[in-house]
Design goal:
- This protein has one helix spanning 2-36.
- By secondary structure, it is mainly alpha-helical.
- It has one domain.
- The termini are far apart.
- It is found in: Cell outer membrane.
- Belongs to the Multicopy lipoprotein (Mlp) family.
- It is a lipid-anchor.
Length: 38
C-alpha cells in the first residue's frame, strides 16, 4: 500500500511537470516533420 501512495504522488508530479514538456516536444516534432516530410 505504501507503494501505491508513492506512485500516486509520482503521477500527480507527472501531470504538472511533464505535460508542458510533452506539449513542447510535440510542437517541436510538428515543426520538424513539416520541414522534413514535404
Amino acid at each position: 500500500m505504501a507503494n501505491d501512495r508513492k506512485f500516486n504522488k509520482f503521477l500527480q508530479y507527472d501531470e504538472s511537470k511533464i505535460k508542458p514538456t510533452l506539449d513542447h516536444i510535440n510542437k517541436g516534432l510538428d515543426k520538424y516533420t513539416e520541414r522534413h516530410c514535404r
